[in-house]
TrEMBL record:
Pfam families: DTW. InterPro entries: DTW (IPR005636), tRNA_Mod/Golgi_Maint (IPR051521). The keyword Nucleus applies. It is an enzyme of class 2 (transferase). This is tRNA-uridine aminocarboxypropyltransferase 1. It comes from Catenaria anguillulae PL171. Residues 28-212 form the DTW domain.
Amino acid sequence: PHKDLVISPTAPLLECNRKRCPTCRDKCRYYCRQCLVPRGPATPPTLPPLPWTYDVFKHNQERKGKSTALHVKVLCPNESNVWTYPQDVERYTAQADPEKTLVLYPSARAQPISAIDPSSFTHIVVLDGTWYQAHQMARDTPLLQDSRVRHVSFASPPQTKFWRHQQKGGDHLATIEAMWWLVREFMVAHRPSEDYHRYDDLLWYFTFTYQRI
């Protein structure tokens, strides 16, 4: 969907049929939305380790079937976590280091990733929900209002390829698009000698769904 992507073949996903997850018994096709692990014959591509850990705050009113953010946990299980808002906020706050945490949110104090020392953070919080829900999470989560938690936004976001109606226009990305693009801007700014296409497979499931619609 996005120009110049280098994506592993998605054809194996065509062989997946709906069946029950052997762990939770939920019906799934490509991955289990409860266990967040691949299911079926299609094995996801192996990505290199992400430059940080993504902590997804998923609003409890956002259906898992709509969420593209869950893709990151399936594709990068060692560098991502999914936390349900508001149930998990207190538990997350207890273990978080505000000085090492960023939140991807376009507030007035947000900076581009190029302006942030890459050694100064280890975790990036991503808010998964509608625009209103994301605003609610940013506003009502004390940790995210802590001045030590820096806000990061995009220098030049691409136009979204998300297939659902966008309330805020084409430069408001689907959550997995946003996570992929932030990594790309980071690589261009801080690791220019490395190939940022190594992380394009963050959009592996997204690209497959886009092509099917």
